[in-house]
Amino acid sequence: MQKIFLCIIFATLVCVNAQENFQLYDQLPERTLVLWRAPDVATSRDAMKGSALYKLFNEPEVQNFVKKTIDPYKDHLHGTINQVSQVLGMPAEKAIAVLHGEVVLAVVDVDPRRQSVGAVLSIEFGENREAIDALLNLAKQASGFTFDEEQHDGHTVYSVQQMPPHMKVSYAIVQDTLLISSQNTLLKELISGSEGARLKDAANIKTVSSKVHRAGVAAELLYLNVEQAMKQFSPMMPPQAMPMMEKLGVAGIKSLGMGVNIDGDNINVDFYLHSPGEKNGVMSVFDLKPTSMEALKYMPKHSVGVSLMRFDMVGLLNKVKATLEDIAPDGSLLQMYEHMMGEIERELGFDFENGLFDTLGTELYGCNYMPATGGLLPRSLGAVTLKNEAEFWRIANEMATKGDLSIKKLEFAGKTIHYVSQNVGELFNFRTFQALPKLGNFSGQALMVENGTLYIAGSVQDMKSFIEERSSWKENIDNNVDFQQLKKFLPAEASFVTYLDVRPMFNYVWNTMIPILRSFEGIIRKAGVEFSTANLPQATTISRHLKPFLMSYASDKDGLLMSYTSPMTFIIPVAGATGVGTAIAIPLIEEQKKKARQVMIKSNLRNILSAQQMYKVDRMGYGSFTDLTQKNYTYNVYNYDSGVFMCGDYYLYMYRATADGEVTEEGAESNRAHHKFVIYAWPASYEDNTVYAMNEKGEIVSTQTRQYYDLDMPKANAAFAADAENASKLEGSFASGSAGQDANIWNSVD
Fold first, then answer.
1. Beta-ladder partners of 367
2. Which one, of 502, 498, 510, 500, lies nearest residue 536 by Cα?
3. Most buried among 219, 303, 385, 399, by the most CB within 10 A?
4. In b/e form, how buried is each residue of 481-492, taking b as 16+ CB within 10 angstroms?
5. Distances in Å between the alpha carbon of 31 and those of 105, 115, 178, 186?
């Protein structure tokens, strides 16, 4: 079991590549079939810290909820981490640190006849060579393999003896990059530099990259070289396969790509299908014309949801039929399709080809907005242009009759509102409800025709609200700052756009949900999950990090693009694995790093105390940081600015006092002997807020505050007890479990 675990660790290590010097991406040949690339782990991690998702998970209330939830499993988790550290022979954080730069996994060659795959992985480990060597040695011992050594272009290549020549797993270290390949020959090719065309220069990957890496920090790229795969595998396909693919319209697909980008608060995820040229067959179904942005002027600025769509139902059905006839000229597929559509039509209760869609235009739009009168949920409104109003009402009434519905109307504010009513019949007679799964879903909906546009609302009340409130809508959604910021991500050819802002209703929903959850607490705990609504964050804690979401679809001459832009892109499964996992992991890792920094500064303060004691014996008084560093009494401390020194990730400032209470600040000249001192240490990073103070007795106290940042150092008396009368002369005791003279609570540190 231990060997399996170590092999997994070894394989995982391989997932990353170099960037500063050797770059695997630059060496890959154009024939590469699959590429997964994270250009720079460190940059992506830093960019993730600026995202709304990371900020949310860093909220104290959210961290407290996570802590309370995992506390019952803390001992088990710590035990597991300790076991991992023991197996690795180093702290787990040190092993993780090898993931430093670019991450690359590529499949270059596949030979089904020989059952071999030419794959390569790389990890840029930066300055963590010692950790990489230790992990490689550990993996060698665990696997039990023996390795041959050979020199190639000045690098040592290690190959597993026990494997056949065509699948001889090999590895090498090139500058600060670890390369592992499933084939010795491929590894050597990449070290030397592939002859011929390179993948990075290929037109297909350039097109895909330009589509999926639009803005922000490129965090991931997944690329599938479909064109190369077709060249390689088409000779092995049945003779009828390629003609069939051409009829389907998929033979022209060149490549597929997905990109994840971090841009400030937002995480952008883009999927692109690269298929240049005219679209036919199945591809023609997805080749939609751009939608018009003209409808935005009809949607209020305070809309929480907006949808725009260019959709031709009649044209779509005709494309489907034409494609089926091309694939099967004998009409067999078309017959199957018509049978399936007939079943759907019987279930829904109306005919797709009864002329209804002929009466409608192709531009559809809708919006959701919070009503002026208040409410838990927003009002909904949809609209579409009408080509033939009289024909529309004729078909609509005919459909209603078939579905056991009635279309009724009422007058309101000079407008005629039609609404759909379910004809139930006898109350509680089960048989009368059998029509409900059909058109009964439309029951209650309201319709209004105005100036050639059909408006559809979820209820008569929603329609009345729209009629009453629209006169007060002075500005439209295009004047909304949030919408404008997201609109820049829209491709010019977008045929489908959805914008959603959950903030206005989130607080209502969250505060309504908590009392409901409270009634289930006992059941949840009984299931073995430690859960308490008392630990849940407040609604405002979450909502202040929420921002609108934008999704779009576009087709152009080069292919099809689906895009998502959101601060909470974890709702998308693929980005979820990346975004959420990273967002949760980073705060936990940062917390461990913060603790490590705090342990280090306490150790350094005690080292400085020892240096002061040695200096006092030599000079009959305590010295300044300048004195200590010049005489080599202390290390790791260096001058920063205006008397402020640095040690690790902390700023340091020292006050010294003579026997009669004269205080000398760091950097000031003084020939008198100093018999007291206080050193303050505060974090250089805003992510940490722990401040320390130490006196000549070696007493250390700390406080949690962001009052001191950059060169805003504490005053001499900051950490002294509030009742210390001569604290400004460094006389008296430190505060302990109480407020200091800077009003912060200071506590003793062991």
1. 306, 381
2. 510
3. 219
4. eebebbbebbbe
5. 15, 18, 22, 12
Three-state SS letters, 558-607 = CEEEEEEEECCHHHCHHHHHHHHHHHHHHHHHHHHHHHHHHHHHHHHHHH
Place of tokens 């990259």: 209
Contact 89, 10 (CB under 8 A): no
- Tell me the per-residue pLDDT of 607-636, one tens digit each, with 9 for 90 and over: 899 888 888 888 888 988 888 887 767 767
Give the C-alpha separation, 583 to 16, whole Å: 19
Q: Where are the domains of the chain?
A: 1-201, 278-556, 586-748
pLDDT of residue 14: 41
Cα(648)–Cα(669) distance, rounded to whole angstroms? 26
For 102, 218, 428, the CA distances from 16, given in Å and listed in that order, are 6, 15, 65
Q: How many CA atoms lie within 13 A of 316 on its CB side?
A: 13
Angle, helices 573-619/60-70, rounded to nearest 10 degrees: 100
Distance of alpha carbon 449 from alpha carbon 389, whole angstroms: 8
Q: Which two tokens stand for residue 540?
A: 């405002």
Strands 650-657 and 644-647: antiparallel
Output the CA angle 174-179-183, nearest 5 degrees: 125
Pairing of strands 494-500, 559-566: unpaired
3-state secondary structure of 80: helix
* CA dihedral sign of residues 499, 505, 506, 512: negative
Q: CB–CB of 742/714 below 8 Å? A: yes
Helices 129-143 and 2-13 pack at an angle, to 10 degrees, of 140
CA 57 to chain centre: 12
Q: Nearest-5° angle of CA 349, CA 352, CA 356?
A: 100
CA distance 562 to 688: 39
pLDDT in tens, 478-512: 888 888 888 888 888 889 999 988 888 888 888 88
Mean pLDDT of the chain: 81
**Which residue type, as a one-letter code, is found at position 423?**
N
pLDDT of residue 687: 67
Global confidence as pTM: 0.67
Nearest Cα neighbor of 477 from 367, 365, 363, 362 is 367
In three-state secondary structure terms, 124 is strand
Cα–Cα distance, 464 to 431 (Å, whole number): 34
SS3 assignment, position 637: coil
Cβ contact 269:575 at 8 Å = yes
Separation between Cα atoms, residue 43 and residue 269, nearest integer Å: 17
Our CA dihedral for 404, 410, 415, 421, rounded to 10 degrees, sits at -20
Residue 739 in 3-state DSSP? strand
How far apart, in Å, are the Cα atoms of 264 and each of 54, 261, 574?
Answer: 11, 10, 20
Residue 715 contacts by C-beta under 8 Å, 6 or more apart in sequence? Answer: 728, 741, 742
Residue 695 pLDDT = 94
For residues 412 and 267, what is the distance between their CA atoms, to the nearest angstrom?
A: 45
Indicate left, alpha or beta for 553 from its phi (over 0: left) and psi (-120 to 50: alpha).
Answer: beta
Which has the closest alpha carbon to 373: 306, 447, 297, 472? 472
* Residue 401: both structure tokens together: 């009759």
pLDDT tier at 341 (50, 70, 90 boundaries)?
confident
Please name the helix (run of DSSP H) or strand (run of DSSP E) that holds residue 683, with its range, or none: strand 676-683
